[in-house]
Amino acid sequence: MNILQTDIKFVPGVGPKRASILNKEIEVFTLGDLLRYYPYRYVDRTRMYYIHEIDNSMVYIQLKGRITAFETFGEGRKRRLVAHFTDGTGFIDLIWFQGIKFIENSLKLNQEYIVFGKPSLFNNRWNIAHPDIDPYESEGDRPEGLFAFYNTTENMKRNYLNSKAVQKLIHNAFGMIRERVPESLPPDVIAAAHLMPFHDALENIHFPKSPPLLRDAEFRLKFEELFYIQLNIVRYASDRKAKLKGFVFEKVGKYLNAFYATKLPFELTNAQKRVIREIRRDTASGKQMNRLLQGDVGSGKTLVALMCMLIAIDNGFQACLMAPTEILASQHYETFRSMLDGLGLPVALLTGSTRKKEREKIHQALQSGELPILIGTHALIEDVVQFQNLGFVVIDEQHRFGVAQRASLWSKNDRPPHVLVMTATPIPRTLAMTVYGDLDVSVIDELPPGRKPVQTVHRFDKKRGALFQFIREQIRAGRQAYIVYPLIEESEKMDLKNLEDGFKHIREAFPEFTVCKMHGRMKPTEKEDVMQQFITNKAQIMVSTTVIEVGVNVPNASVMVIESAQRFGLSQLHQLRGRVGRGADQSYCILITPYELSANTRKRMEIMTESNDGFVIAEADLKLRGPGDLEGTQQSGIPFSLKLADLVRDTDILFRAREIAEEVIDKDPALEHPDHLVLKQELSRLSGNRYDWGRIS
Ligand code: ADP
Ligand code: MG
Fold first, then answer.
1. What atom in ligand 1 is closest to the CA of residue 300?
2. Which H helix or E strand runs over 132?
3. Which of 41, 299, 344, 685 falls between 20 and 30 A from 315, CA-CA?
4. Ligand 1, closest atom to CA 297?
C-alpha cells in the first residue's frame, strides 16, 4: 500500500478523536490528505522586532523577551489571561481567552521566550492575542526562514488544532515516511515539465528552505493539479473521437451553391471562411463533430451556421437550430426565411407556443423528411420530435443550455449528429480549456467590414437632461434606441414596477415618439408584435428588461441605454451593448449608475468604456469575479478542485500542462505503459465517485 493512504489517526499526535475532527473539518482522512493540506501563506521568521518599533503597518511580529507578571480578568467564560511581556525596549500584553489553565501551567516568569503573532492596539497598549510562544532556544533549533500558516476552523481551534499544531502534525507525518513520498507523476512528465520531485515539493511547500525552493515547489504542485484536469479532458476527448462515428458530408451541392451565387449579400470575412473550412473538414472526416464556435456579438456566426446547415442538406440530411429564447428563435426563423427565400427549402419554427395543429404538422414533416430545416427553442428537444435523419445541430448562445439538454439531442439518431455550439459570450481560453476542454474550438475574431465600434460612456443617474436630448437627436436622424432595466431576481414584481415606471417616464419625456415595452412575462405573441413594431420602426424607443440580451438584431438601432448598470455583470453588459452597432451608423452605449459605486463596479464601468473586445471583457470578468462565478460555468464546474493553481494567474502553467497531457495521450492513449499506472491511480483518486466531468457535451 502507498504510505500516503495511511489512515490519519496513525500519524503521531492525531489519534481517533483528532482524526474525526480532521475528517469533518478539513476533509483530511489520510496521511496523503494531510500532506496536501497546503499553507495559505508564509511569514518570514528570520527577523526579530523590538517592542518600541511596533507600528500599525505590521501584520506579524516576532519578539524575544520575558514575562514579568500574569493577571487574570473576568469570570467563567469571560475569563482572560494577560501576561506582561518585555524585551527591555517596552511592554506588550499577551492575551489568552481560551486554554488559560494550560498556558498558566506551562509558561514561567523570567524565562526567555520567542513570541510571534499579530499586534493590535487597545487602550493605547500593544497586545497580541493568542500568540505563538516558545522558550528561546539555541539558534539551530529555532524556526528559520519562511514559516507556514494553515487555515483552521473554530472547532479545530477549540481542540487545540491551531495552525501551529497542524504544522506539527505535518512534521510528524514526514517522520513516518522512511524513504521518500512516492511520485504522483510519471518520469516522462516530470522530465518534460522540469519538475521538482513530489517529495521535495511537499517538504518545501510546508517547510520552505528558501524562497526559490518554495517557488519551485508551488510550480510543481500547481502543475500537477492542472495537468490531471487536462489529462482527464484530453483522454475523454480522444476516446470519444475514436469511438463516435459521424455522418460524412462529402459534397457541396446545389443548395449551398445556389445560396452562394444568388443570396449571399456580402463577401464572407476571412474568419468566417476559415471557420467554415474547419467545420467542413470535421464533417467530412467520418468522426462526429463537437465544435464550439466563439465569436463576438455581430461577428456573423448565424450566417456560418446557415451555410453549414445547407451543406448538411446537400448531403441528404436534416438540420436544426436551437435558440435559448422564443424571441431569438423567431428572429432566426425570420432571418432564415428571408435568406433562403427562392431556394425552395421549407423552414419551420417550433417553440413552446406553437399551436397543436401546427406542431403536429411539423412532427410529421420532420419524420417523413419533407422538412429539412427546423428552428426552435427547448421545445425542439422534446421526445415527440423525431427527425428522419438529423445530421447537423446548431445550438445558439450555448450558456443558456444545460449539459443534459445538449446531450439529449444526440439521442435523436442512432448516430449522433454533428454539433455546433455557438456562443457570443466568449469563454476565456483558460476556462474553455478546463471546462469545455473536450470541444474543439473555432473562433471568429474579425467583424464584418465597416462596423464602427460602439462608443460607450458612463453617466450618473442624476443627469438625464443631456441624455434625453441626445436620444432625441439620434431618433430625429432616423435611428432608434433601447432603454434597458435590470432584472432583480428576488422580486419579479418589483422589476416590473421598475420597468413600468421607466416606461411611463420615457413616454412622458418623448411625447413625439412611439415607445414600446418588452419583458419576459409577456405572451410570446405579444413579444412578437412588439418586436415587429420596433423592427419596422413604428416604435422608435424600446423599453425593455434583459430579454433582448441575446441575439436581437435591429441594425437601425444606434443607442443602448442601460439603467442601473451596476447591477449587471461585465459579460451581460457586453451582450446588451451588442444590440447596437449592427448597422453602418455610429452607435452609442450609455451606462447609467448612481454616483456612489464600489471599487469593483467602477472597474467594470471603466472596462466597458475602454474596450469593445468581447475576449478582453471576458478575461477581465474572470479576473474580477473568479472562475466559479461565470455564467455557464456553475453547472459544469471545474473537474477536480484546485488548491494551489489559479486559472487566472497560472495560465502559462495551464497551457504547458495541456501540451504535455496531449503528448502523453498521443503516445499512450489507454495509459497502458507501466510508467503510466500512476496516472490512472491519480485520476481515479481525484475523481473519487464523482460525476465524470469529461462528459459534458
Ligand atoms: P452573431 O450571431 O455572430 O452575433 P449575426 O450572424 O447575427 O452575428 O450577424 C450580425 C449581422 O452582420 C447580420 O445582420 C448579418 O447579416 C451581418 N453579417 C454577417 N456576416 C457578414 C459579412 N461577412 N459581411 C457583412 N455583414 C455580415
Ligand atoms: Mg447571434
1. 6
2. strand 132-135
3. 299
4. 4
Q: For 578-667, where are the alpha helices, taking DSSP H only?
A: 599-610, 614-625, 651-667
Q: Tell me, what DSSP letter sits at residue 79?
A: -
CA–centroid distance, 552 to ligand 2, in Å, is 8
This prediction's pTM: 0.63
Domains of the chain: 47-143 (2.40.50.140), 455-611 (3.40.50.300)
Distance (Å) from CA 422 to ligand 1 centroid: 14
Ligand 2: centre distance to CA 447 (Å): 13
Q: What digits encode the pLDDT tens for the residues 80-113?
A: 999 999 999 999 999 998 888 888 888 999 899 9
What atom in ligand 1 is closest to the CA of residue 299? 3
The alpha carbon of 539 and the centre of ligand 1 are apart by a number of angstroms equal to 24
432 three-state secondary structure: helix
Residue whose Cα lies nearest atom 24 of ligand 1: it is 448
Atom of ligand 1 at shortest range from CA of 578: 4
- The answer to whether the beta carbons of residues 593 and 463 sit under 8 Å apart is no
Question: CA 541, 543, 546, 547 torsion: positive or negative?
Answer: negative
Q: Cβ(509) to ligand 1 under 6 A?
A: no
pLDDT tens track for 661-675 = 999 999 998 899 999
Q: pLDDT tens digit string along 18-72?
A: 999 999 999 999 999 999 999 988 877 778 899 999 988 777 888 999 999 999 9
